[in-house]
Amino acid sequence: MATLRDIKRRIVGVKSTQQITKAMKMVAAARLRRAQNNVVNARPYSEEIEGLLLRLATPEAVETNPFFERREVKNAAIIVVTADRGLCGAFNQNIIKEAERYIEEELKPEEINYKIYSIGKKATDYFTKNDYPVFEQVTGLFSSLNYNSALEISNKIIPAFLDGTFDRVVLIYNMFVSIIRQKLVVKQFLPVPMEEGEETDNSNYIFEPDQGYIFDFLVPKHLKAQVWRALLESYAAELAARMTAMDNATTNAEEMIKQLNLTYNKERQAAITKEILEIVSGANALKASSQ
Predict the structure, then answer these.
(1) The domain spanning residue 137 has which CATH number?
(2) Residue-wise pLDDT tens digits, 46-83
(3) Domain count, the chain
(4) 88 tagged catalytic
(5) What's the domain range around 95?
(6) Residues 145 and 153 sit within 8 Å (Cβ to Cβ)
(7) Does 287 fall in a domain?
(8) Considering 7, 28, 88, 227, which one is annotated as catalytic?
(9) What pairing do the DSSP bridges indicate for beta strands 181-190 and 168-178?
């Protein structure tokens, strides 16, 4: 049975932990505002450039553009985006589980060779420790996230697709939906997926240079924008998950402190009652012996 001193020490320890979780929640909340603004600003550009590609796409342009080339998938690359740190609930674990599911169910390793491009320390540590084929790894990216980070990733993965090293490239990351919700995204990056829709009448437009040139010019920009958006979405989702996790931890610590205080007071009351009983018993014993 725990002594009063043990309970008191535990109360002090839980209060210290609560202060840490509360501070981490405030830091995550402050950073989330900026990250959320960056995501909101990046989404229209990413969506608009994708819409432009749909308007400019013609069967001939798609067929001749190397970024749309469909070929038999023998080698695949998976870009997995996690955080560099933990204490954000199931954020990292969900991404890793989804990557493993995709490998087993969609790629079938016995049929398709694959390699992993891990972004974030958590993904890198997990996949290297478990002997997954990691061909590239990036850590410490989110401490100073900028557009050059997306360019570096794009400039490594896009040429590998064009020269035939990989026949398919897939992005797996968490998309920011709200402070309490993130959405797992598994998206084919290369070859560029082109949704079939209604034919667009461009007869009222004059293109300078020609329509095909503009289409070919926009495709690489579209790919880089997709990588940049994935990084921004993942970072915002990570901060939201950490903020929620630390808020829950702070609340749980408060409940634990209340329970420990209740236990402490009960034990203290029992100890005082015991001492009073011992004093009364001793007094009665002395009184009886003196008679």
Answers:
(1) 3.40.1380.10
(2) 889 988 888 888 888 888 899 999 999 999 999 999 99
(3) 1
(4) yes
(5) 26-194+207-244
(6) no
(7) no
(8) 88
(9) antiparallel
